[in-house]
Write a structure and sequence with these properties.
Shape: globular
CATH class: Mainly Alpha
Distance between the termini: 36 Å
Number of strands: 0
CATH superfamily: Globins
Bound molecules: protoporphyrin IX containing FE
CATH topology: Globin-like
Largest sheet: none
Helix content: 55-70%
CATH architecture: Orthogonal Bundle
Radius of gyration: 15 Å
Order of helices and strands: HHHHHHH
Strand content: under 5%
Structural class: mainly alpha
Number of domains: 1
């Protein structure tokens, strides 16, 4: 319960518009693993990462990612209700060439964004609470990978 409060409180404190935070997250992600950029078919339209991240298609994906996190935060009491959605989302990511190993660096980027955005409110228990939620989401998405 303490974990849920930490997650809800911190997510709310980021404000209504989550897109700028998503941009911080994906800027970090492409910094840590630039090859992920190439999985977006529309990445051909931009030569440098900062161009990409301000293009409409990338902003749309960032917005979608933030909406999925938002859904997870809203369903902390019944995360299993998102199982089918997340499994399908995993399937779509396998189809575009994402590997499940990339979720580790996505998680790192999420924590990086939280650290940047929350400042002194980014504490060890908060970090752990987010890691726990993230691992549930990743586990559900990973079920969408066929071997
Ligand atoms: C769709 C790539 C991580 C949520 C897509 C698409 C690509 C992609 C290429 C299809 C084109 C598009 O809709 O823009 C990636 C890569 C990721 C990543 C390379 C990191 C390794 C995530 C994460 C989430 C997410 C962490 C949410 C937790 C979505 C959603 C869609 C999508 C909701 C739309 C699916 C649909 O069309 O129904 N992603 N993605 N993505 N992605 Fe990601």
């Amino acid at each position: 319960e303490k974990d849920k409060e930490l997650i809800r409180g911190s997510w709310e404190s980021l404000g209504k518009n989550k897109v700028p935070h998503g941009i911080i997250m994906f800027t970090r992600l492409f910094e840590l693993d630039p090859a992920l950029l190439n999985l977006f078919s529309y990445s051909a339209n931009c030569s440098i990462t900062s161009d990409c991240l301000s293009s409409p298609e990338f902003l749309e994906h960032v917005t979608k990612v933030m909406l999925v996190i938002d859904a997870a935060v809203s369903h902390l009491d019944d995360l299993h209700s998102l199982e089918d959605f997340l499994l399908n989302l995993g399937r779509k990511h396998q189809a575009v060439g994402v590997s499940t190993q990339s979720f580790a660096v996505v998680g790192e980027s999420l924590l990086y964004m939280l650290q940047c955005s929350l400042g002194a409110n980014y504490t060890a228990p908060l970090r752990q609470a987010w890691l726990n939620l993230y691992s549930v989401v990743v586990a559900a998405m990973t079920r969408g990978w066929s071997k």
